[in-house]
Specification:
The protein has one domain. It has 10 helices and 4 strands. The chain has a two-stranded antiparallel ribbon. A two-stranded antiparallel sheet has the order 3-4. Strand 1 and strand 2 form a beta hairpin. The protein is globular.
Length: about 325
């Protein structure tokens, strides 16, 4: 039973905790999505003889998907924390307070700044052209109302992906790797790399994905995870993730990880230039400009942590079991 149970802690080993939580997440989210789609069809009166045939073209679907992901992530991480990890939900990076909110704001400003930098570089090089503004997609509703769709969807994505991939997975991986030969900080570093590779692999089958885009998403995982491993909280990665996607898709009209705009965009842009640099149909995350911006993001996160705390160091508490991490 030692393969499955950590008898000293009286709970499943980290590998099995990770597998169970992620399996539950992958099962529950599609079920929630389907239930929400049916509820939306009933509420909007679209349950006609066409059934679900008209659903795939609706700009509401990304928002429904985001809500399903958010609820599924919160539910499975909370349950896994209670039943498997034996830690409160706050232990996954949600010790809310003024400092947490300040870090969230910094992350949001940073995400907007990094994507704006990419846009300005491409604009200056003539690789992207602005062809319109205040565009809506798939609906005749007012622009402001349509903009709520990508805003809501990207808010959900930022919260649920960071809760699952950094808050739960990185933390449990670090616990499982916390052997004497590595020590807690070595375990956190190795868990950061491993979770980022997993994060990149999950994006490998996105539309228009390439080996370069998959590698860049791994770097994105390192950038997002750096805020967590340096602060011990999810505020910076959540804020950064939200505005990175929001400004990329809903402000500048770029594809986001292979997916085109939906709802509305402030600018309509036409991509040109070399795909090697711009990412082509996958969006900026598939080109060489993205990893440069991500490395800059890691540097700025480290500088922010230095200003906030007076030091730059991997947080060893991420690799500690609940018995040691909680007072």
């Amino acid at each position: 039973m030692g393969l499955f149970l950590d008898e000293g802690a009286g709970r499943l080993r980290a590998l099995w905790r990770l597998a169970i939580q992620y399996w539950a997440y992958r099962v529950i989210v599609p079920l929630l999505f389907n239930l929400l789609v049916v509820a939306w069809l009933l509420a909007s009166g679209r349950t006609t003889s066409a059934g679900l045939g008209a659903v795939p073209d609706s700009p509401v679907l990304p928002l429904i998907s985001g809500v399903a992901g958010l609820v599924g992530a919160a539910l499975t991480v909370w349950l896994a924390g209670r039943l498997l990890d034996r830690r409160p939900f706050s232990g996954f990076g949600f010790h809310l307070g003024a400092g947490w909110c300040l870090d969230l704001l910094f992350g949001m400003v940073l995400g907007a700044l990094l994507i704006t930098t990419i846009f300005l570089v491409e604009l200056g090089m003539g690789w992207v052209a602005v062809t319109g503004e205040f565009e809506t997609y798939g609906t005749d509703a007012p622009f402001a109302l349509c903009m709520l769709l990508p805003v809501g969807a990207f808010l959900c994505v930022g919260f649920y992906e960071e809760t699952v991939f950094r808050g739960y997975q990185l933390k449990n991986a670090a616990e499982g790797l916390n052997y004497a030969a590595l020590g807690p900080r070595g375990a956190v570093l190795l868990a950061l790399v491993a979770s980022s590779v997993f994060f990149g692999a999950l994006h490998a089958d996105n539309p228009s994905a390439t080996p370069a885009s998959t590698f860049n998403i791994v770097i994105a995982g390192l950038m997002l995870g750096s805020g967590y491993v340096l602060s011990g909280e999810l505020a910076i990665p959540i804020g950064l993730h939200i505005t990175w996607n929001l400004f990329q898709g809903a402000v500048y009209g770029f594809p986001v990880s292979g997916f085109g705009p939906f709802g509305a965009t402030f600018l309509v842009t036409k991509q040109g230039g070399p795909d090697l640099w711009t990412g082509g149909p996958f969006g900026p995350e598939g080109g060489l400009l993205a990893p440069a911006a991500m490395l800059l993001g890691i540097l700025l996160i480290a500088l922010w942590i230095r200003l906030r705390t007076g030091k730059i160091s991997l947080d060893p508490s991420i690799a500690e079991s609940p018995d040691r991490a909680l007072p």
